């Protein structure tokens, strides 16, 4: 729903004449992204490092990124299956 329309709306309700509206919406989305990139670039040079880290952390939280990667866990049953396959030469 990046362009303000769902996939179903594109499939059922759009024709060739509507293509210009889609292209215009895509241009606006790209321009917003460029403005966001510019804002971050300018902000990284004009703010204190700690404030910029807080800003980036809040953006990552809003985007749904975890602060730390999940620590991998040991899969004992998988390890045992692998050992068995290695013994059998599979």
Describe the overall structure:
This protein has four helices and no strands. The two termini are 47 Å apart. It has one domain (7-88). With 90 residues, it is an all-alpha fold. The chain is flat, with a radius of gyration of 24 Å. The model has no long low-confidence stretch (mean pLDDT 78). 70% of the residues lie in helices and 0% in strands. 0% of the residues are buried.
Structure described in brief:
This protein is mainly α and 90 residues long. It is 70% helix and 0% strand.
What characteristic shape results from the CA principal axes?
flat
Q: If you average the pLDDT, what whole number results?
A: 78
The assigned structural class equals mainly alpha
Strand residue content: under 5%
Helicity range: over 70%
Main sheet summary: none
C-alpha Rg (nearest Å): 24 Å
Number of domains: 1
Q: Tally of extended strands?
A: 0
Helix-strand pattern: HHHH
Tally the helices: 4
Task: Give the low-pLDDT segments.
Answer: none
Cα-to-Cα separation, first versus last residue: 47 Å
């Amino acid at each position: 729903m990046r362009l303000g329309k769902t996939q179903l709306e594109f499939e059922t309700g759009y024709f060739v004449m509507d293509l210009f509206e889609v292209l215009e919406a895509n241009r606006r989305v790209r321009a917003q992204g460029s403005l966001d990139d510019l804002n971050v670039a300018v902000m990284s040079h004009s703010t204190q490092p700690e404030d910029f880290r807080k800003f980036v952390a809040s953006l990552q939280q809003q985007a749904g990124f975890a602060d730390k990667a999940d620590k991998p866990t040991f899969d004992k049953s998988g390890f045992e299956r692998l050992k068995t396959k290695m013994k059998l030469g599979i």
